[in-house]
Amino acid sequence: MTGGAIRVSEIFGPTIQGEGTLIGEPTVFVRTGGCDYRCGWCDTLHAVDPTFRDTWRPMTAEAILARVRDLSGGRPLVVSLSGGNPAIQPLGELIALGRGEGYRFALETQGSIPRDWFAALDTLVLSPKPPSSGMAPDWQAFEACLAAAGAAPRTVMKIVVFDAADYRFAREAAARHPQLAVFLQPGNLVTGKASPDEAADLEALAARMRWLVETVIADGWFAARVLPQLHVLLWGNRRGV
Ligand SMILES: C[S@@+](CC[C@H](N)C(=O)[O-])C[C@H]1O[C@@H](n2cnc3c(N)ncnc32)[C@H](O)[C@@H]1O
Ligand SMILES: Nc1nc2[nH]cc(C(=O)O)c2c(=O)[nH]1
Ligand code: SF4
Ligand SMILES: [Mg+2]
C-alpha cells in the first residue's frame, strides 16, 4: 500500500444514516478495513477481522471520491466514514477534496487514535466502548481526539448499551464530558458469524430498547437520547444498507 492509500472494505449507499445524531439523513458510507479494537459484539467483523484482509482494497482519495460521486449522482450529501476504525487511515485529503465539492463528512470512531484532520470534519461521533464489549476505553486518547477536533465539527458521543453495567458506564462517560450530546444505542446481539446476513432478533432489540428508555426515564437522565439502529429495524443485519 502506498503512503496515501486508504484501505477500504466497502463503499455503499446512498441509504439513510441509521444511527445517532444524523439518523435519517441520506448518506454514502465509506467503510475502511482494520481496527485496533476487537469488541465481542462487533457487528462489522468483515471490516475488523484480519482474515477478511484480502477483501480490503487500497484506494486513493480521488478514487474513493469518484465512487461517492457515482453513487450520489454528483449531488452532495453526507459521507459517513466508518470501519473498522477509520482513524487508522489517512483520510485528510479525501475530506478536503470532498468538502471542496460540497460533500459533508461524518466519522465514527471509538476514540483511540487522534488525528489532526478531525478538525476538518462536519460531525465527529465518538463511541467509547462499554464493559460488555470486553474493551477498556483509553480516556487519554479519547481526550486527545476531542482536542484534535477542536470546536469545528459537531462532536457527539454514541454509546452502545447491552446491560446495567454498560448503562453505568454511559453515565460516567457523559459526566466526564458534559459538553457532548449523548446518544444511547441498544446493543444488537449478532450471532457471531463474521459477516452476518441473517434477520435481526427484533423482539430482543425492542425489549432492550424498552428497558433502556425506562431506565433513562426512571433515572431522570433527560439529556440522553435513546435511538435504535434504524437500518437494523428495516433490513436486519444485511451488509451494504
Ligand atoms: C462498527 S463501528 C465502526 C466505527 C468505530 N470502530 C466505532 O466502534 O465507533 C460503528 C458503530 O456501530 C456500533 N456497534 C458495533 N457493533 C454493534 C452492535 N452489535 N450493536 C449495536 N451497535 C454496535 C459501534 O459501537 C459504533 O458506534
Ligand atoms: N444505514 C446505516 N447506518 C449506519 N450507521 C452506522 C453504520 C456503521 O456500520 O458504521 C451504519 C450502516 O452500516 N448503515
Ligand atoms: S471498535 Fe468498532 S469496528 Fe472495532 S471492533 Fe469495536 S465496534 Fe467493531
Ligand atoms: Mg454498523
TrEMBL record:
Cofactor dependence: S-adenosyl-L-methionine; [4Fe-4S] cluster; Mg(2+)
Radical SAM core domain sequence ranges: 22-237
UniProt record, GO biological process: tRNA queuosine(34) biosynthetic process
Residue sites binding substrate per the record: I16, Q17, G18, R31, S82
Gene Ontology terms, MF aspect: 4 iron, 4 sulfur cluster binding; carbon-nitrogen lyase activity; magnesium ion binding; S-adenosyl-L-methionine binding
Catalytic activity line of the entry: 6-carboxy-5,6,7,8-tetrahydropterin + H(+) = 7-carboxy-7-carbaguanine + NH4(+)
EC number: 4.3.99.3
Gene3D superfamilies reported for this sequence: Aldolase class I
The protein, known as: 7-carboxy-7-deazaguanine synthase
Species: Aureimonas pseudogalii
Taxonomic lineage from the root: Bacteria, Pseudomonadati, Pseudomonadota, Alphaproteobacteria, Hyphomicrobiales
